Amino acid sequence: MIHIGDLRRRVVLEREQRSDDGGGGATVAWQVVATVWAAIKPLSGREKDRYQGLEATLSHRVTLRYRADVMPDMRLRMSGRVFDIRAVFSPDERRQWLICLCREIVRP
Description:
Blueprint (H helix, E strand, L loop, with lengths): L8 E12 L5 E17 L2 H7 L8 E6 L9 E4 L2 E9 L7 E9 L3
Antiparallel strand pairs: 1-2, 1-4, 2-3, 3-6, 4-5, 5-6
């Protein structure tokens, strides 16, 4: 069961924005879509086993209020950390909550 009080972290939803660089290539920038409250937790070993068929590198589960515009090609930023969204679903199909399965991007 998810409670609104569990959403204690501010996260920034971002969408990739590509633009022509004039030389036949493209430049990529990340555009802010929204800043929302979320609950974020590392996936347990059991959850990793459950979602292994989806992607072996999943690391976190992020819960937020339902939004129709969140897609698997987006990312989340939180306190200097970046998470690629790999899968999105509404756990009870009532469009109240949204679960994002993410992979944390670790930069050297």
